[in-house]
Specification:
Blueprint: H1 12-15, H2 20-31, H3 36-39, E1 44-49, H4 61-74, E2 78-83, H5 100-113, E3 118-123, H6 128-139, E4 143-147, E5 154-156, E6 159-161, H7 165-175, H8 181-190, H9 203-214, H10 229-248, H11 252-255, H12 258-270, H13 276-288, H14 294-303, H15 318-323, H16 326-332, H17 350-353, E7 378-383, E8 386-393, E9 403-411, H18 414-420, E10 433-436, H19 457-460, E11 468-471, E12 483-484, E13 505-509, E14 514-517, H20 521-530, H21 541-549
Parallel strand pairs: 1-2, 1-3, 3-4, 9-10, 10-11, 11-12
Antiparallel strand pairs: 5-6, 7-8, 9-13, 13-14
Helix pairs in contact: 4-10, 5-6, 6-13, 9-12, 9-13, 12-13, 12-14
The structure holds FE2/S2 (inorganic) cluster and magnesium ion.
Length: 574
């Protein structure tokens, strides 16, 4: 790659020009106390920071941004911190998924409208990672991702606590009286005790791992605990590296290739990652015009062993995964399944990045010869109930439900389900298939994580802990059960899920990858003709924009107008 000259930089049009506007740019930069020496001859690096006082996963980002900037200064860049909306999983309603594309749009337009030559993307809490990468991919300026990193293990009386999973576990214990209110309070004190993301293999750890495998963050960065001083040094290294990337003109489209996406998907399978990865990686690929579809996940899943014994599917936590060697160690076991010639933001190939990696704890990261499962967790289903696909996490299912035929018990929406699920008169048996409608991208709205539909109380009382459940919702990366998710098209837009009625027979065959509604085509046509579309929910605001542009799960739930690689004009300088 030919190195760029100072005059070639985007920011030169702001700082280097000799006109009225550039007088303003320079005088206003001087106003902030900078000197000409601070910017002259240097690339401007946008440090896109999703810090916020209501995002506990990113509390260290104020400090980390300083460490990133230290690296940028050292390497001869001019850092400019740009705050962007923080999608805080624990607080934002109805769901952060509603706002992923808003953050992506914000990132793209921040980079476009300001004099950025490159970007450091600071994120980690679930949706922030794909959003930052989507925006940067569309703008296609050199960019590097700084993962927030997981928090340390939770601790309660010497027992390790995992985000999400242990909350539900002890909530159930509290309800049946096995622990006291005081115990519950102590668990509350101990489950989240440092900055950083959820430290189970939920969506955050899954997506940070996926992005490292994609090549968009430094090697070995994604599992460093947020509280570890290695994390601060990784931030500075990323700052130094982005300056070089600008001179080398290494763009996201050079890194996020089809091969890189295959590497990311393979890695997600091997870590037993969150089902949400299917949606986010499709959306990211869609920004670059990389032809990855949902089916590719199934193909790669079939040949990828599950190696990371991390909760919720396994036993350990991200801190253990880090000490066991982290992602390079895991990828080192998969060399024959990865495209080792893919280039990463390190400036080297993935093969070079993981050359010296080794596994230091073979229980946490299994050797290739001793996998937890021969296949990956995620499976893609198709059939007349999900013509455009659905997903299920097969490793989280009761094996005897993997092939099942049973009558539907249908809930029209979440409130209907909440009102009737525990009704003693609900006509439900352990063989029933629970169906929830209106939980998809439009229906939720925002495709909330409702997919682990509750087991009716009267079934629980029979000792049954799993049933076949079907919805157009997502589920948390920390959930489990025979839950068919992401049914596309969703019921709100008239997908076949909208036509299911109580008592209809539904067939699930995971090995055969099939989801079938055993109702005749003639009957379904009649129901379709009688189907009344739901009333539009939003008349104004972001909700209305969202409703007009959101795509279905099999397309990644991006906005249609944000997908693809059609050129967007650079802002003119006037
Ligand atoms: Fe932020 Fe889980 S709540 S990563
Ligand atoms: Mg989550």
């Amino acid at each position: 790659m030919a190195r760029k000259r100072y005059e070639d930089l985007r920011s030169y049009r702001w700082y280097g020009a000799d006109d009225l506007r550039s007088f303003g740019h320079r005088s206003r930069t001087l106003q902030m106390g900078y000197d000409r020496a601070d910017w002259t001859g240097k690339p401007v690096i946008a440090v896109v920071n999703t810090w916020s006082e209501i995002n506990p996963c990113h509390t260290h980002f104020k400090e980390r941004a300083e460490e990133v900037k230290r690296g940028i200064w050292q390497a001869g860049g001019f850092p400019v911190e740009l705050p962007a909306i923080s999608l805080s999983e624990p607080f934002q309603k109805p769901t952060t998924m509603m706002y992923r594309n808003l953050l992506a749009l914000e990132v793209e337009e921040l980079l476009r409208s300001y004099p950025a030559d490159g970007a450091v993307l600071m994120g980690g809490c679930d949706k922030t990672t794909p959003a930052l990468l989507m925006g940067a991919a569309s703008m296609n300026l050199p960019a590097i991702f700084v993962p927030a990193g997981p928090m340390l293990r939770g601790n309660w009386r010497g027992k390790s606590l995992g985000s999400g999973s242990d909350t539900w576990k002890y909530w159930a214990e509290l309800k049946v009286g096995n622990i006291t209110r005081k115990d519950w309070e102590e668990i509350e004190d101990g489950i989240a005790r440092t900055p950083g993301t959820c430290m189970t293999m939920g969506t955050a750890a899954t997506m940070m791992s996926a992005v490292e495998a994609l090549g968009m963050s430094l090697p070995a960065s994604s599992a460093i605990p947020a509280a570890d001083s290695n994390h601060a040094r990784m931030a500075s290294q990323s700052g130094r590296r982005i300056v070089e990337m600008v001179w080398e003109d290494q763009k996201p489209s050079d890194v996020m290739t089809e091969k890189a996406f295959e590497n990311a998907i393979t890695t997600v399978m091997a870590i037993g990652g969150s089902t949400n990865a299917a949606i986010h990686l499709l959306a990211m690929a869609g920004r670059l015009g990389v032809p990855i579809d949902l089916q590719r996940f199934d193909t790669l899943s079939r040949r990828t062993p599950w190696l990371a014994d991390v909760r919720p599917s396994g036993r350990f936590l991200m801190e253990d995964f880090y000490y066991a060697g982290g992602l390079p160690a895991l990828m080192g076991e998969l060399k024959d399944l990865l495209h080792l010639d893919a280039v990463t933001v390190s400036g080297k190939t993935l093969g070079e990045d993981i050359e010296r990696a080794d596994v230091y704890n073979e229980e946490v990261i299994r050797r290739r010869a001793n996998p937890l499962n021969q296949e990956g967790g995620l499976v893609v289903l198709k059939g007349n109930l999900a013509p455009d696909g659905a997903v299920i996490k097969q490793t989280a299912c009761d094996p005897k439900l993997l092939k099942h035929r049973g009558p539907a018990v249908v809930f029209a929406d979440y409130n209907d389900m909440a009102a009737r699920i525990d009704d003693p008169d609900l006509p439900v048996t352990p063989d029933s298939v629970i169906v929830l409608k209106h939980a998809g991208p439009q229906g939720g709205p925002g495709m909330p994580e409702w997919g682990m539909l509750p087991i009716p109380k009267k079934i629980l009382q029979q000792g049954v802990r799993d049933m076949v459940r079907i919805s157009d919702a997502r589920m948390s990366g920390t959930s489990y059960g025979t839950c068919v998710l992401h049914v596309a098209p969703e019921s709100w837009v008239g997908g076949p899920l909208a036509l299911v009625e109580d008592g209809d027979i539904i067939e699930l065959d995971v090995a055969g990858r099939r989801l079938h509604l055993d109702v005749s085509d003639a009957e379904l046509d009649a129901r379709r003709a009688a189907w009344v579309p739901p009333k539009r929910r939003f008349e104004r605001g972001f909700g209305a924009i969202y409703a007009d542009h959101i795509t279905q799960a099999d397309k990644g739930c991006d906005f249609d107008v944000l997908m693809g690689t059609a050129p967007t004009p650079e802002p003119e300088i006037h």
